[in-house]
């Protein structure tokens, strides 16, 4: 029947990652627009402010990449951490990273931590576009834009291996809700850092 009620149509269940994407889609759109409004590639000085946002966010999630329980979910997790590359990018540009003292994530909440990791890993997809802009400033994956480089196996495959691990993790419905809350908290944290550190 053409006008059957839509909720009676048999649809495949949404994967965990699809849920995370849907739940944070608007936050991502607004963050992307807000970052571009600050023109992070207008000059090296402006790019350094963007790097400082990245550094603080990746310092938040660094303990998660090193967490043995989370490494059971994604066995290559430790190798995915970006903080050291971001700090080297800052040094390349003559900006010495200052010590950080305000960790924003509770690593003991494992499902929420997976939400934070979803956001950190997903940001490497958008980095393809950001790297093209960084090249125009004379930066590249060996100088100043190390953390924006694609993984040797390719961004797409590297991302799919992470999302597959996330989708395969045995979580309860309550855990899934905490993962969504963790992803939303991660986007909110990055937004607050951008508002603090990247003037429009
Ligand atoms: C100006 C800055 C940004 C631009 C232009 C941008 C752009 C993009 C693009 C084009 C994709 C989709 C890539 C694809 O599907 O192949 C993407 C995905 C994603 N980005 Fe961004 N992004 C930006 C900043 C960020 C930041 C700062 C974060 C978080 C810290 C972030 C988190 C994500 C996530 C989680 C995904 C994966 C969504 C999914 O497929 O589940 N992005 N971004």
Quick structural overview:
This protein is mainly alpha-helical and 200 residues long. The chain has a single domain, classed as Heme Oxygenase, Chain A. The chain is built from eight helices and no strands.
Cα radius of gyration in angstroms: 18 Å
Low-confidence stretches: none
Q: What does the average pLDDT come to?
A: 93
Q: What is the count of structural domains?
A: 1
Strand-helix topology:
Blueprint: H1 16-37, H2 44-65, H3 68-73, H4 77-80, H5 83-92, H6 110-135, H7 155-168, H8 173-197
Protoporphyrin IX containing FE binds next to helix 1 and helix 6.
InterPro entries: Haem_Oase-like (IPR016053), Haem_Oase-like_multi-hlx (IPR016084)
GO molecular function: heme oxygenase (decyclizing) activity
Organism: Methylopila capsulata
Short descriptors:
Haem_Oase-like_multi-hlx; mainly alpha; 200 residues; single chain; globular; Heme oxygenase; Haem_Oase-like; heme oxygenase (decyclizing) activity
């Amino acid at each position: 029947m053409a006008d059957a009620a839509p909720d009676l149509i048999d649809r495949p269940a949404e994967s965990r990652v699809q849920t995370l994407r849907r739940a944070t889609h608007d936050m991502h759109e607004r963050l992307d627009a807000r970052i571009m409004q600050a023109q992070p590639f207008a000059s090296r000085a402006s790019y350094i402010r963007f790097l400082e946002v990245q550094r603080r966010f990746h310092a938040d999630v660094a303990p998660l990449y090193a967490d043995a329980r989370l490494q059971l979910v994604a066995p290559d997790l430790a190798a995915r951490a970006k903080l050291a590359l971001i700090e080297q990018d800052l040094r390349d540009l003559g900006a010495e990273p200052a010590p950080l003292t305000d960790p924003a994530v509770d690593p003991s909440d494992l499902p929420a931590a997976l939400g934070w990791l979803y956001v950190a890993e997903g940001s490497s997809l958008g980095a393809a576009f950001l790297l093209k802009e960084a090249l125009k400033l004379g930066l590249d994956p060996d100088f100043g834009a190390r953390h924006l480089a694609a993984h040797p196996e390719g961004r797409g495959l590297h991302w799919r291996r992470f999302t597959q691990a996330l989708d395969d993790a045995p979580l309860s419905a309550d855990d899934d809700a905490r993962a969504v809350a963790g992803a939303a908290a991660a986007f909110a944290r990055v937004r607050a850092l951008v508002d603090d550190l990247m003037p429009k």
